[in-house]
Amino acid sequence: EPPTSSSSSSETSTPHHLTQDELKKMAAYKAVELVKSGMILGLGTGSTSYYAVNRIGELLKNGTLKNIIGIPTSLKTKQQAISLGIPISDLDSYPVLDLSIDGADEVDPGLNLVKGRGGSLLREKMIEGASKKLVVIVDETKLVEKLGSSTGLAMPVEVVPFCWGYTAECLKRLFNGCEVKLRIGGDGKPFKTDNENYIVEMYFGEDIGDLNVASDKMHRIVGVVEHGMFIDMATTVIVAGERGITVKHK
Ligand code: 5RP
């Protein structure tokens, strides 16, 4: 079963009676058309990437694709890839990837992203930063005018568990009116990433402002491991919507 979407219900129907999951699948299948035999591929995480990874597995199995090596961006995707028989490796062995395909939580008009509501932002950023191309697959609900502005949704920041409250306070001081909360998992305990870190959720009361400035400020906080803004990383965004598929290039 695909993981449940981290941002909205998979039951949402569009006027053309396509569910949000059907839109995600459309975007994912379109992205997989870009995969060629012999590629070193970054395999994303989340309910949209799930469809892309499944499709890659299917095409390997029926012989359409050959000699693919997948670099999974999370333990969950690693398990999925193994179960599909996709050969996997890591960045140590393959420091340059041909292509990564992954979902996103928000996409702005400049193709900057918020990622990590599924909690895998650090590995995603490392692997996708090493990719010659990053193809992002979303349904149209993910498009925003400005990152961090979607109502009620947060920008995730991975922090070390040690004195995470102090780190959260430091983050809060950077942005006026910002709320910072610890992500809690389904078991009622702090959510732990694949790297055994915590995630704090930032709710911006005002415009983040210049994204690179905001990014630098966050990186200067010692307890911050990485933030969920993916600035200038996506080369292509495939958006599935009620009127079909739109492909945006950087
Ligand atoms: C996980 C991510 C996901 O790509 C993002 O949360 C989108 O997920 P979905 O496709 O389930 O909406 O960044 O860390």
Walkthrough of the structure:
- This is ribose-5-phosphate isomerase.
- It holds the Pfam family Rib_5-P_isom_A.
- Its EC number is 5.3.1.6.
- Belongs to the ribose 5-phosphate isomerase family.
- Keywords: Isomerase.
- With 250 residues, this protein is an alpha/beta fold.
- The protein has 6 helices and 13 strands.
- The strands form 3 sheets. A 6-stranded mixed sheet has the order 2-1-3-6-12-13, with helices on both faces. The chain has a 4-stranded antiparallel sheet with strand order 8-9-7-10, with helices on one face.
- Strand 4 and strand 5 form a beta hairpin.
- Helix 1 (20-32) crosses helix 2 (47-61) and helix 2 packs parallel to helix 3.
- The longest helix is centred in the first third of the chain and has 15 residues, at 47-61.
- The protein is globular, with a radius of gyration of 18 Å.
- The protein starts with 19 loop residues before the first helix and ends with a strand.
- Residues 5-7, 44-49, 102-105, 115-121, 124 line the site of ribulose-5-phosphate.
Form type: globular
How many distinct helices? 6
Q: Order of strands across the widest beta sheet?
A: 2-1-3-6-12-13
> Bound compounds, please?
ribulose-5-phosphate
Q: What oligomerization state is this entry in?
A: single chain
Terminus-to-terminus distance: 33 Å
The biggest sheet amounts to: 6 strands, mixed
Rounded to the nearest angstrom, the radius of gyration is 18 Å
Kindly name the structural category. alpha/beta
Number of beta strands:
13
Give the low-pLDDT segments. 5-14
Helix content: 25-40%
What is the H/E order? HEHEHEEEHEEHEEHEEEE
How much of the residues is beta strand, in percent? Answer: 15-25%
- Mean of pLDDT: 93
